[in-house]
Design a protein that fits this description.
The protein is an alpha/beta fold and 463 residues long. Among the domains are: 60 residues; 225 residues, Spore Coat Polysaccharide Biosynthesis Protein SpsA, Chain A. It is built from twelve helices and eight strands.
Length: 463
């Protein structure tokens, strides 16, 4: 018996079978209704038109159901993946407990994790409970504009309660109006004030940028440093670090660009700090390093088995090497950055005869800024960050946030500021604030650019 014989009341199938192709499964029910009307207006022979349309409708509904089930399955899979990622990130969280023993550290971490998960569970259950409560009230037709929910009618002594739900919901509305609304209104007003302050800050930054452009203000080298750029030999020991993790697409370009820097090989050491957990990627990066070693580059490969602290932990581990004490400056390039050959010659001379200078930050330039809409928006956003925020703060405050890459640090400044800490994932801003509090000055070079390959999701190429 055919699976859809219920429609024809068990009668045998007659006529041409219907084949539904998946070329355009997004049919509309309105189109099907129009087709029914057209076929009903035509003469039928033995009900053949009716059976054919019924099978078409059944197949379309099944295809729609299959598509909806596929969407639900993909959403469920994405949610499970997100939950697994969040669980791994929380489980790998660390605290600053370096002064205690390992046993105390494990105990404290477990305690913090237990409290954290408890707070999340309580918040989620409370949110679900309140959501169900509000949905029930919505289906009962209650809202804040209802006459029986006005605040003057919420007096407990004069209220005629019809059932338990009405009694609970009226008191919940009273609590919201008397105790929750005032602090929420205060927070909203505070957000408005903060927005006005931020807008004023942006206005002052734009005026400062205009004044810098009008007066052509920029960091100037001292006389000795200018002589260095003219050809004199000030070439201090510079350590270059390239932290990366599973950077299969860009590792060759970044390593090649750094190895081609115009700096004496004996005064420069390149550290490729590989945190990849993919054995194939690690092998490719190691082979690339070995290739440049054979070509004469002073480059080493470091791979961590345990990724404690992510990028901050990777940089901290590299700075603990014994040979680092031989170097005076450290330059950091992320795996998607490709510096120009004269990068060090345009940044390092600013440190000469300027013992208070701790950081020289260069600007980013985008290789693929016109690739699609996302890269263009990213270029606009970060161009304002470099052109306005960092340039103005660097000229007038001698402080700005380190961008995490394309910058040269004085190693002494890092050591006096406490070095890299794994307590946060924004280790660049963390070390910049601590260095500034220790009295170190920063310089931003708007005219020194480091090429950056903007990475976007694959779907954005269709924009």
């Amino acid at each position: 018996m055919a699976p859809f014989d219920w429609w024809s009341n068990g009668s045998s199938h007659r006529g041409t079978p219907v084949v539904v192709k998946m070329e355009n499964p997004n049919w509309k029910m309105v189109d099907l209704e129009d087709e029914f009307l057209l076929q009903d207006s035509q003469p039928r022979g033995g009900g053949r038109g009716r059976g054919k349309n019924a099978k078409q409708l059944t197949w379309v509904l099944l295809l729609k159901a299959h598509k909806a089930a596929g969407c639900l399955a993909s959403i469920a899979s994405a949610m499970l993946t997100l939950a697994a990622v969040v669980r791994r990130r929380v489980a790998a969280g660390k605290t600053d407990v370096d002064a205690v023993t390992s046993a105390d550290r494990v105990y404290e971490n477990q305690t913090l994790k237990s409290r954290f998960y408890t707070c999340i569970k309580v918040f989620l259950w409370l949110s679900v409970l309140l959501l169900m409560f509000e949905m029930s009230a919505f289906f009962k037709g209650w809202h804040f504009g209802s006459g029986n929910l006005q605040l003057e009618y919420l007096n407990f002594t004069q209220l005629a309660v019809r059932d338990l739900f009405d009694w609970i919901y009226r008191r919940w509305v009273f609590i919201r109006a008397e105790y929750l609304a005032p602090p929420l209104q205060f927070m909203a007003n505070a957000c408005i004030v903060l927005f006005m302050i931020q807008s004023l800050d942006r206005l002052l930054l734009c005026l400062g940028c205009f004044w810098i452009k009008f007066k052509q203000i920029k960091p100037v080298l001292k006389q000795a440093a200018e002589d260095v750029e003219s050809g004199y030999g000030y070439f201090p020991m510079v350590l270059i670090q390239i932290p990366m993790c599973n950077e299969k697409e860009v590792y060759q370009q970044s390593i090649g660009a750094v190895c081609n820097l115009d700096w004496p090989k004996s005064n420069m050491l390149i550290q490729v700090l590989d945190d990849s957990d993919d054995p194939v990627t690690s092998l490719l990066i190691k082979e690339e390093v070995h290739k440049w070693q054979q070509e004469g580059a002073n480059i080493v490969y470091r791979h961590r088995v345990i990724r404690d602290g992510y990028k901050a932990g990777n940089l901290k581990s590299a700075m603990n090497c014994s040979y680092v004490k031989e170097y005076e400056f450290v330059t950091i390039f992320d795996a998607d950055f490709q510096p120009e050959p004269d990068f060090l010659k345009r940044t390092v001379p600013h440190f000469q005869d300027n013992e208070e200078l701790g950081l020289v930050q260069a600007r980013w330039s985008f290789v693929n800024k016109d690739e699609n809409l996302l890269t263009r928006l990213q270029n606009i956003n970060l161009a304002f960050h470099f052109e306005v925020e960092q340039q103005v703060n660097g000229v007038y405050l001698n402080f700005f946030g380190f961008n995490g890459t394309a910058g040269v640090w004085r190693i002494k400044a890092l050591e006096e500021s406490g070095g890299w800490l794994e307590r946060t994932t924004v280790e660049d801003m963390d070390i910049a604030v601590r260095a500034h509090l220790h009295g170190w000055k920063f310089i931003f070079l708007n005219d020194v650019e480091c090429q950056f390959v903007s990475t976007v999701p694959a779907c954005s190429h269709q924009i």
